[in-house]
Design brief:
heterodimer, A: mainly alpha, two-stranded antiparallel sheet, 2 strands, B: alpha+beta, Penicillin-binding protein 2a (Domain 2), Alpha-Beta Plaits, Beta-lactamase, 3 domains, seven-stranded mixed sheet, five-stranded antiparallel sheet, elongated
């Protein structure tokens, strides 16, 4: 609707849409994923099984999904955002129920060919819903308290559900991405100042609640914070991951120890070397040059997204693109901080590189939205 | 829901502005990540590289080969022989219990070992080898090797273990090794890391323990790459250790075995010392035991049998056993008296069968007395009264000083366990230890080697060698270390008048060669090998007045443990002393009957370097000696050398 206001004279139709895709962005995604294949091949000791090959298949599938999403006009996705959001919430409930029946914390639903994490889906659908919300909301109401509380609730509801799983990492990412969406939409600075102040207060509360009846986090989450703050307290236990990860990363040096020559990963000193800690293998084997190159690729992806967002005149398009960019940024920034010892170990994979199906699939579908916004922009 | 373009323009600008703010924050964060990466990977790279290497590289010690032991002729006394064991690697075995039960159908598996192995398996990672059976025979190893395909995860392994091929012959000299115990480690101030190698063996007793420093050698090391689970991925470098030094003993293995066989059935000790070099040609304590039992870890039953034996096979009687030297001490008393100038060789005493010292009667072993005796006669007939008389004139301190000079009452520095110094009492000693003044009666007792006086067979052999040579011959057990000859024990000339020594030697010659000498029955008749000696019979009980009046009970009528010790010391050839021998037979009865024949046989064996011709023996003994030689030959070449087990 709002889209039509821009006097869209011509949108590409049919197969011509392919030509109008954001190809540089697509190539960047493919190159990042290729880095992933290379590293998965390396950590498997020079073998396509058990990780590299399934990852490539899934990436191919993900690319197809991205194309399909991209072909569909962006306004369709805007109209679908409420449905998408509610579906995600329903899936979170489903997981909750299966989890209580099953073995404690269960975060995924088995679809047969892959396991879907509703919390992953939630990240994208939350962004879609908030973008649609602010697209619909007249600009001058944006900072009115009643219109601020509504999106806050939309953010907090899934956040708490994810936190109950419990999955602190994803919860923080949801919170951050949602906050960023509100910020993009133009909510008044003062709200953010207040929230940041409250956040600092909450951190104090979290620490002070420890050991009391109203303890806010699980013990293992406290321990993760402890070992993050001082990994040496428990070098063979919880601090082991951080310590070994830092050793691997640091020992890479300027140019690395060579492809498949990383002793830390090859000799299994690295934990989760094919998932959350895959960046350390890259940094160990290709050194600063390799690690920094990946960081540069990620940064370029963000830049292309921001450029796409700024180029479009459509509010939903730009907000959704920026939201997805923020999500993507948070993914790799948190993961890298974690393996470099700048953040606690919260279990966030490295986007497009870490082994894992649903995260990559959802991410590529989200980039489909970015592509769709790009193809169907007003000209 | 129409919107005016102006509002759209405003919101678009606002989004752009906010996007740029967030973009700026993101850029800053990416910059921070880049800086952090650079700091870790460029500035701190060396430190982290070092940590990674520490993770990856383990130093493993390689046990050094223990030094070997040889006798003076190069015969192996202690060696490192292959020892086989059977190990299992859990991850290769699959169904561990099935493999174990298959294996137990082939060879015997000790249930105790199995229990220990299972406990180990529960703890250790799956790739670590665990010993299922130790000290496996070659036959069993072959069985396992042949059936290897049906026994996954089972491997025979070869290691080195100490073995003593001479078994009991050298048990007391060499001792034995055993695995390092926690107690051993606690006794050491700074234990070498090599001691922590599982199954590493160290000397526990005897030469093995005393020269551990030489025998152990130095550990080698290998650098291996390990993964996080501790599994060795490959060997990076290897430096072999230095083997321990090889020791050559002064002992003659053949003679040692002969002596061991000759003492079969007795609780006895014999020492053969080389007068020229101090080399111990044989140093035997009987009965003996098989040291290999201890290397393997002796069973409770075997150990109990050794400790319960009244003949004390574990005791090293040659250096650890101290006995009243009895009449073998008389040479010392006589030399002391001669040196002190209180008597001359021609001076006589009258022996009525007893001597009054103070108000106490000291008896001569011969009830009727020896009549008038001079030095030669007193030694030849072993008259006690003569010595009571001269000792009182000489004084105990002079006698003890002479005893020390001749090697009694001093600790000889030998690399053997529990070398004892014996005892040569002095007035000051008694004052100090007993808090009583020295009595003249104590001197009388000491003069004939009774009372406080104690000496080990080794010391008696040294004494004989010193009398024979006039030099302070010092016993030497280790002849060479890694081929480097050790200093000889020939010794310096003693500060004793040569004429006085000659009187004593002549008297000792008479003991063995004069028709009325106490050891005439055990003489050597080969002229070039004539022997000089002295018998000794030391009491282990007091003879009461009543018993003396009724007639002293004969040894053969007493229970074994109350019989007298039989002693004999000697050297030969008389004119050019080559060997000195001391023999002590515990509770053997009289020295001339129980000890002197042994000493003669041993001496001849040493002089002839093998079985002597029968012509060396007096003609009436030859038939008996021939039989004895045949019996001992059989025993020596027999299935098992003496381990004390087949004695009745």
């Amino acid at each position: 609707m709002s889209y039509l206001e821009h006097n869209v004279k011509s949108t590409p139709t049919g197969l011509r849409k392919f030509l109008f895709m954001n190809w540089p962005l697509t190539l960047l995604l493919i190159s990042v994923a290729s880095v992933g294949f290379l590293m998965l091949y390396s950590v498997a000791g020079g073998s396509f099984t058990p990780w590299a090959e399934p990852q490539m298949k899934r990436f191919a599938l993900g690319l197809a999904v991205m194309m399909i999403v991209a072909m569909v006009p962006i306004w369709f996705w805007r109209n679908m955002s409420v449905v998408a959001y509610l579906t995600s919430i329903a899936l979170l409930f489903a997981v909750e129920l299966v989890g209580t029946v099953g073995m404690g914390a269960q975060r995924w639903i088995d679809l047969g060919f892959m396991r879907l994490q509703p919390s992953e889906l939630m990240k994208v659908t939350l962004v879609m819903l908030l973008a649609a919300y602010y697209d619909w909301l007249p600009a001058k109401r944006t900072s009115r308290p009643i219109w601020v509380i509504l999106p806050v609730l939309l953010i907090l509801f899934p956040t708490f559900m994810v936190l109950r799983q419990p999955d602190l990492g994803t919860a923080i990412l949801l919170l951050a991405a949602g906050g960023a969406m509100m910020f993009f939409a133009g909510v008044h600075w003062a709200y953010f100042g207040a929230v940041i102040g409250a956040g600092v207060g909450l951190i104090f509360a979290v620490f002070n609640s420890r050991g009391t009846d109203w303890q806010l986090l699980k013990d293992y989450q406290y321990r993760r914070i402890d070992t993050f703050l001082d990994p040496s307290t428990d070098p063979l236990g919880a601090g082991y991951h951080i310590t070994q990860s830092k050793i691997a990363l640091g020992s890479g040096g300027w140019s690395g120890r060579g492809f498949m020559q990383g002793t830390q990963s090859r000799l299994n000193f690295l934990p989760e070397k094919h998932t959350d800690f895959i960046f350390t293998t890259l940094a160990e084997e290709f050194g600063f040059v390799g690690g920094f190159s990946l960081l540069a690729l990620y940064t370029l992806i963000i830049i292309f997204c921001v450029v796409t967002a700024l180029a479009t005149r459509d509010r939903f398009s730009s907000l959704v693109t920026l939201g997805i960019a923020v999500n993507f940024f948070l993914f790799f920034a948190v993961n890298m901080s974690m393996v470099m010892g700048l953040a606690p170990v919260v279990g966030v994979p490295l986007p497009l590189v870490s082994y894992g199906g649903s995260a990559m699939l959802v991410l590529l579908a989200a980039f489909g939205l970015v592509q769709s916004a790009h193809i169907h922009r007003a000209r | 829901m129409k919107r005016n373009p102006k509002e759209l323009e405003v919101t678009h600008r606002q989004v752009s502005r906010r996007a740029l703010v967030v973009g700026g924050l993101q850029a800053a964060f990416v910059g921070a990540l880049g800086m952090r990466m650079r700091y870790m990977q460029v500035d701190q790279a060396d430190e982290f590289r070092l940590l990674a290497e520490e993770n990856r590289i383990n130093i493993r010690l390689i046990a050094p080969a223990r030094g070997q032991l040889f006798d003076r002729n190069g015969k192996i006394l202690g060696q490192n022989s292959p020892s086989y064991r059977i190990i299992i690697v859990r991850e290769d075995a699959g169904d561990v219990e099935k493999v174990i039960s298959d294996l137990s159908k082939l060879i015997y598996l000790d249930p105790e070992d199995l229990e220990r192995a299972r406990a180990e398996m529960r703890r250790a990672p799956a790739f670590l080898p665990i010993t299922l059976a130790d000290q496996v025979t070659w036959e069993e190893i072959s069985k396992v090797a042949v059936n290897a395909p049906s026994l996954p995860g089972i491997t025979p392994e070869v290691g080195l273990a100490r073995h003593y091929p001479q078994k009991g012959d050298f048990a007391h000299v060499i001792g034995y090794v055993g695995p390092v115990s926690d107690y051993d480690l606690s006794q050491m101030e700074d234990p070498e890391p090599v001691l922590r190698i599982p199954r590493f063996q160290i000397g526990k007793v005897g030469l093995e323990a005393k020269r551990e420093d030489l025998l152990r050698g130095r550990a080698g090391a290998k650098r291996v790459e390990v993964n996080a689970g501790g599994r060795v991925m490959r060997e990076l470098s290897r430096r072999e250790g230095d083997a321990g030094a090889d020791l050559q003993l002064s002992v003659d293995g053949d003679l040692q075995r002969y002596v061991q066989a000759r003492l079969e059935g007795e609780s006895a000790s014999a020492v053969v010392i080389d007068c020229d070099t101090g080399d111990l040609r044989a140093i035997v304590s009987a009965p003996s035991f098989d040291p290999n039992l201890f290397v393997r870890g002796i069973s409770v039953a075997d150990y109990k049998r050794l400790t319960d034996d009244p003949y004390r096979p574990l005791a090293n009687k040659s250096v650890q056993g101290t006995y009243p030297p009895g009449s073998t001490f008389k040479m010392v008393t006589a030399l002391a008296a001669l040196e002190a100038g209180v008597v001359g060789p021609g001076d006589t005493s009258y022996c009525p069968g007893f001597h009054k010292v103070g108000n106490r009667r000291f008896h001569c072993w011969k009830r009727g007395g020896h009549g008038t005796v001079d030095l030669l006669l007193s030694l030849k007939r072993s008259c006690d009264v003569y010595y009571y008389d001269v000792a009182v004139k000489t004084g105990i301190d002079n006698i003890s000083a002479m005893a020390n000079k001749l090697g009694l009452g001093v600790k000889h520095d030998l690399p053997m366990s529990a070398v004892r110094s014996g005892l040569t009492p002095t007035q000051a000693w008694k004052e100090r230890v007993h808090g009583e003044g020295w009595l003249v009666g104590d001197t009388a007792n000491a003069s004939i080697g009774q009372g406080f006086m104690l000496a080990s067979p080794l010391q008696l052999a040294v004494m004989s060698a010193r009398i024979a040579t006039g030099r302070s011959v010092t016993p030497r057990l280790v002849k060479s270390i890694d081929g480097i000859e050790q200093p000889s024990g020939a010794g310096e000339p003693l500060d004793i008048d040569k004429r006085n020594l000659r009187y004593i030697r002549n008297a000792m010659y008479a003991v063995s060669n004069d028709r009325r000498g106490t050891a005439y029955g055990s003489r050597i008749i080969e002229d070039s090998y004539r022997m000089a000696g002295k018998t000794g019979t030391s009491q282990v009980r007091n003879i009461t007045k009543a018993e003396r009046a009724a007639g002293v009970i004969r040894n053969s009528d007493l229970p074994w443990e109350r019989r007298d010790h039989a002693l004999f010391v000697c050297y030969a050839p008389f004119d050019k002393p080559k060997y000195a021998v001391a023999v002590v037979v515990e509770h053997g009865g009289g020295g001339s009957k129980a000890a002197a024949p042994v000493a003669r046989d041993v001496m001849l064996q040493a002089l002839y370097n093998g079985n002597p011709p029968l012509e060396a023996y007096p003609s009436k003994d030859r038939e008996r000696i021939k039989e004895q030689q045949e019996r001992l030959d059989q025993l020596r070449n027999g299935i098992a050398p003496s381990d004390g087990s087949d004695r009745a």
